[in-house]
């Protein structure tokens, strides 16, 4: 069964990386692209890539050598090949690509989902109401009206960083740190590390929110009043946890290397360390969903789109990790 790759923002680097990987790298897991076939052909020609675009009726259709299979979701919308220039008209295609890909994974026609980067601002101006893929995918995976709690994890080998809150302004993070959020996040991380990464009893570190993890309640009380009690309760249920630990020293390599994952309290607390050490290799994984979803760690890189420059290593790692996670699960 192929992987489903949503093409992402057409003005961005995502389509280039998909095309370059298909043309230049052998031995990748089989995949099909969800997006606009005519746009993919135009971007391929711009990049001088010798690859035919083959429109598929269904993802399992055989794709001849020298071709890349595309499930065309353009539905009459002309997606322009203009690197670096967003176009509101393309937004429905970008969104539909994700929706169709999720549906094909959920219905067993594809093994897992890999998303190329979207430009959040471009989608917001076209009326998209989800902060990012992570929250949108959770909504698409709702069952009986229940939306699963999605957990973002950035992973490179044993370095796995999880922001407990995701795409939210910093000034409301503190209000969102609740015992329920800490509990749910730890439970999902531990379960998915076991089921999808083979870490039988994951050892997880949890960061504090405030400098020095609150310094005993003198520089903030979330650690004392919320995070520590939640961790104590979870330890009582058998989870192997350290923390709350000061966020500034937790990512010192000898420290994080002794854990299977580090849970941070907010987006940048988790993502800055991993992007600093592994920007071109780390993968964004969504935990807590009934499907496997990965993505490169970077965004749309408008300055590189359409140039053939830029690294495809994170996208390649996302494809390989999606394949290995879905094999482990099946
Ligand atoms: N999964 C997703 O859909 C993601 C989407 N984004 C979105 O992407 C847009 C742009 O975000 P930025 O913060 O500018 O981040 P960005 O990752 O697009 O770019 C940051 C810097 O990294 C460089 N860069 C990015 N990818 C690269 C690659 N493959 N090889 C070499 N250099 C690369 C860019 O040229 C730029 O200098 C935003 O709308 C953001 O929300 C950001 C991260 C993930
Ligand atoms: N910085 C990571 C990021 O913004 C990716 O978000 P998502 O689109 O995967 O939810």
From TrEMBL:
Domain of life of the source: Bacteria
Residues annotated as binding substrate: 133-134, 275, 284, 293
Binding annotation for a divalent metal cation: 167, 212, 267
Cofactor details (free text): Binds 1 divalent metal cation per subunit. Can use ions such as Zn(2+), Mg(2+) or Co(2+).
Biological process (GO), any one: pyridoxal phosphate biosynthetic process
Subcellular location: Cytoplasm
Cofactor(s) required, per the database record: Zn(2+); Mg(2+); Co(2+)
GO molecular function list: 4-hydroxythreonine-4-phosphate dehydrogenase activity; cobalt ion binding; magnesium ion binding; NAD binding; zinc ion binding
Record InterPro entries: PdxA, PdxA_fam
Pathway assigned to this chain's UniProt record: Cofactor biosynthesis; pyridoxine 5'-phosphate biosynthesis; pyridoxine 5'-phosphate from D-erythrose 4-phosphate: step 4/5
Keyword field: Cobalt, Cytoplasm, Magnesium, Metal-binding, NAD, NADP, Oxidoreductase, Pyridoxine biosynthesis, Zinc
Entry's EC annotation: 1.1.1.262
Reaction catalysis annotation: 4-(phosphooxy)-L-threonine + NAD(+) = 3-amino-2-oxopropyl phosphate + CO2 + NADH
Cellular component aspect of the GO annotation: cytoplasm
Misc. remarks from the entry: The active site is located at the dimer interface.
Function per UniProt: Catalyzes the NAD(P)-dependent oxidation of 4-(phosphooxy)-L-threonine (HTP) into 2-amino-3-oxo-4-(phosphooxy)butyric acid which spontaneously decarboxylates to form 3-amino-2-oxopropyl phosphate (AHAP).
Homology family: Belongs to the PdxA family.
Quaternary structure and partners: Homodimer.
Database matches in NCBIfam families: pdxA, PRK05312.1
Name of the protein this chain belongs to: 4-hydroxythreonine-4-phosphate dehydrogenase
Organism: Devosia pacifica
């Amino acid at each position: 069964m192929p992987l489903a790759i949503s093409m992402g923002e057409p003005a961005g680097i995502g389509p280039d990386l998909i095309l370059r990987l298909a043309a230049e790298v052998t031995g990748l897991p089989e995949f099909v692209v969800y997006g606009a076939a005519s746009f993919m052909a135009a971007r391929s020609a711009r990049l001088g890539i010798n690859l035919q675009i083959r429109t598929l009726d269904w993802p399992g259709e055989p794709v001849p050598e020298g071709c890349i299979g595309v499930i065309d979701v353009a539905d009459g919308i002309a997606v322009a090949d203009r690197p670096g220039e967003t176009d509101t008209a393309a937004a429905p295609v970008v969104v539909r690509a994700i929706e169709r890909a999720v549906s094909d994974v959920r219905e067993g026609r594809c093994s897992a989902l890999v998303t190329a980067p979207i430009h959040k601002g471009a989608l917001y101006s076209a009326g998209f109401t989800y902060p990012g893929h992570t929250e949108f995918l959770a909504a698409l995976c709702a069952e009986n009206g229940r939306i699963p709690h999605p957990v973002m994890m950035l992973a490179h080998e044993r370095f796995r960083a999880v922001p407990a809150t995701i795409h939210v302004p910093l000034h409301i993070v503190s209000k969102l740190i609740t015992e329920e959020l800490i509990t749910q996040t730890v439970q999902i991380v531990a379960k998915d590390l076991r089921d999808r990464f083979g870490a039988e009893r994951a050892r997880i570190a949890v960061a504090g929110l405030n400098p020095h993890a609150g310094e005993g309640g003198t520089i903030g009380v979330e650690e004392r009043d919320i995070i520590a009690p939640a961790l104590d309760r979870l330890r009582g249920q058998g989870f192997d946890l350290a923390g709350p630990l000061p966020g500034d020293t937790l990512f010192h390599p000898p420290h994080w290397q002794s854990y299977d994952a580090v849970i941070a309290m907010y987006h940048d607390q988790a993502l800055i360390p991993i992007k600093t050490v592994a920007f071109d290799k780390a993968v964004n994984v969504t935990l807590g969903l009934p499907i496997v979803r990965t993505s490169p760690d970077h965004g749309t890189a408008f300055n590189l789109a359409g140039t053939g420059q830029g690294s495809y290593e994170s996208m390649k790692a996302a494809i390989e990790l999606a394949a290995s996670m879905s094999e482990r699960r099946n």
